[in-house]
Amino acid sequence: MIDEDGTMLGVMSVADGVAKAKAKELDLILVSPNAKPPVCKIIEYGQYKYELVRREKSARKGQKSGVVKELKMSPIIGEHDLKVRIRQAEAFLKKGYKIKVNIFFKGRASTHPEVGFALLDRYLQAVAEWGLPEEQARLMGKSIIVILSPGK
Question: In terms of CATH, what superfamily is 14-61?
Answer without folding.
Answer: Translation initiation factor 3 (IF-3), N-terminal domain (3.10.20.80)
